Every structure is written in C-alpha cells, then in structure tokens.
Amino acid sequence: MTDSLQSADIQTIQRILPHRYPFLLVDKVVDIDGTKGARGIKNVTMNEPHFQGHFPGAPIMPGVTIIEAMAQTAGVMIGTALELFETDLLIYFMSIDKCKFRRQVVPGDVLEMQITTLRGKPGGKIWKFQGQASVDGEMATEAEFSAFVDLTGEKAK
What we know:
The chain is an alpha+beta fold. The protein is built from 2 helices and 7 strands.
C-alpha cells in the first residue's frame, strides 16, 4: 500500500473483480486514496444489453445498475488499496440506504461515481460506503450501501 493516489485501468479492474460483460459496470477508477475514497468512471453506451428493454425508444440506465457501478468502484478501491489482485475476491451487498435518483443516465453520458468509506478497515469483512454518481457535475444518484467482503477463497499469491 502507498500513501499516494492510485488508479486502476480496465486490465487492473479485471484482476480484482470477478465481473465480466455484460455486468462489469466500471471502466476505470481514479483518485484512489487508500481505502478512504475513489472516483469511478463509466462510459455509458447504447451497446449495453439493458437498453434493449429499458426502454425501447427511450434508453435509460436502470437505477440498480448505477448503484452496482458504485459498488464495483468501491470493490476496486478496496482491491487496489489492499493489493488484492488475482484473488477470489467476492463482495456482497448487505444493505442499500438513503438511495435517491435525481437525473436520468442515458447513452453518451460519462457517469462519475465518487465513493467514500464510512466504515471498514483492512482485514475487515463488513464495510459501509457513501456513493454519489453524477453526469457533467449534475447529481444522478446517491446512496449509502454496506457490503460483506469475502476472501475465504483467496488464491495463494
């Protein structure tokens, strides 16, 4: 671990998270400040499968996928800060609270997710985060969420 800000490109993200297309919902994570916070970037494109049915002729990114993108950003932050590369890291939602949707997210938007850790520590299994997702500086979604971090199947390094 280092004290300087870090980032994770798509190759690094795939070394941390088990998610793959069509459910990998973060393209890069920047400004990783240890386990304190990070900013995730998702380039929203019409090629994503949920737009076929949500909604035909008026594509809108489902709110649950925005929350999932925030959670994946938090997972990458933890994985990068704790150097959890090529492990069997699994992170499970425990709760989603104070969730509000303020703006539609549509193809062509760049979704920025600012994540702040409210509770959790290296080696801990229960974490709580506050997340805000925005487009062009305009709030799209905000929520607090907690997660269970499972490293029981960790591969030998």
